[in-house]
Design brief:
This protein has 205 residues and is of the alpha/beta class. The chain has two domains: 6-54, RecR Domain 1 (Helicase, Ruva Protein, domain 3, Orthogonal Bundle); 64-203, Dna Topoisomerase Vi A Subunit, Chain: A, domain 2 (3-Layer(aba) Sandwich), CATH 3.40.1360.10. The chain has helices spanning 6-15, 23-35, 38-54, 89-98, 126-133, 148-161, 186-194, 199-203; strands at residues 56-57, 64-65, 79-86, 103-107, 139-142, 167-170, 197-198. The strands form two sheets. The protein has a five-stranded mixed beta sheet with strand order 4-3-5-6-7. The longest helix is centred in the first third of the chain and has 17 residues, at 38-54.
Length: 205
């Protein structure tokens, strides 16, 4: 696809780097932006620049935040003794939407996947173990996707944490195998959280 403008070509190329977008879709988006008032496109560009330059990882849970400590970790009404382990911010949003959880989170930043070159050291696992070793946690809830990689990650975490005097639980299997938390409806996810089970019982099946 030969484009009549190098500027358009550059815009299409950059937009096409987004997941799920081909050149044809990227071209349509670029042309749409061109037809918008320049002030709108400038605000979009500024917002994206501010986002990538200013977004932070919470120093406590690694959730995305505008500040050093995210609003969840900073909330004194949250149960700091209970930590829900999730893969990324989309899972935090899914859990928060249930309205059934009032503890804190540990965002791993992904899941163990040797095929993709992701090992334990590439995730925020050491921080979780350190929290538990300080005696700051009484329950860890595994809320990872029910995939091979998710199960591998949970088993690894269990091995790291099993000798500490804490309760280790996982969501009840109301979330179908292979599903990511972000696609589970709030009612199903909320029930899976409320009826969570000891992780050891899952290993026995």
């Amino acid at each position: 696809m030969n484009l009549p403008s190098k500027l358009l070509e550059q815009a299409v190329y950059e937009i096409a780097q987004l997941p799920g977008l081909g050149r044809k879709t990227a071209l349509g988006m670029a042309l749409h932006l061109l037809h918008l008032p320049k002030s709108h496109t400038h605000r979009l560009a500024f917002a994206l620049q501010q986002f990538v330059d200013g977004i932070k990882r919470c120093q406590r849970c690694h959730n995305l935040s505008d500040t050093e400590i995210c609003h969840i970790c900073a909330d004194p009404k949250r149960d700091a003794q209970t930590v829900c382990v999730v893969e990324d911010i989309r899972d935090v949003l899914a859990m928060e939407n249930t309205g059934a959880y009032r503890g804190l989170y540990q965002v791993l930043g992904g899941k163990i996947s040797p095929m993709d070159g992701v090992g334990p050291r590439d995730l925020y696992i050491a921080d979780l173990v350190e929290k538990v070793s300080r005696g700051a946690v009484s329950e860890i809830i595994f809320a990872l996707s029910s995939t091979m990689e998710g199960d591998t990650t949970m088993f690894y975490l269990f091995k790291q944490l099993q000798d500490f005097p804490i309760r280790i639980t996982t969501l009840a299997r109301g979330v179908a195998v292979g599903d990511a938390l972000e696609y589970a409806d709030s009612i199903t996810l909320g029930k899976s959280l409320t009826h969570r089970v000891p992780y050891e019982s899952v290993l026995k099946h």
